[in-house]
Write a structure and sequence with these properties.
By secondary structure, the chain is an all-alpha fold. It contains 3 helices and no strands.
Length: 100
């Protein structure tokens, strides 16, 4: 089940990278930035869901000490992932709406 943590990390980085790519491409030409915005938000949601699945796995195997040790950090990091993703996508939408 460690793949859930790796998948969450990869999808979180993907969620942050897509709006940056959209902003960089926007300077060069017009394109459909909504698809990158939607993919970024979807990747963020799946990353957070993977963390929820991993927490459920810890409950299922009865590893309460691991759950208690990591729950605060997982909540904090998931919040940061969500806030940064929303800010980057809002910035992306703001820049690309001006070009339309």
């Amino acid at each position: 089940m460690e793949w859930l943590n790796v998948g969450s990390l990869v999808l979180g980085l993907f969620a942050w990278t897509l709006p940056v790519i959209a902003i960089l491409i926007a300077r060069k030409k017009q394109f459909n930035f909504w698809s990158l915005t939607a993919l970024s938000l979807l990747a963020c949601a799946i990353a957070i869901f993977f963390q929820m699945l991993y927490s459920q796995h810890l409950i299922d195997i009865g590893d309460m000490s691991a759950l208690l040790d990591t729950s605060k950090a997982v909540t904090y990091v998931s919040g940061i992932l969500l806030i940064v993703t929303v800010i980057l996508n809002a910035f992306n939408i703001g820049i690309n709406q001006k070009k339309i």
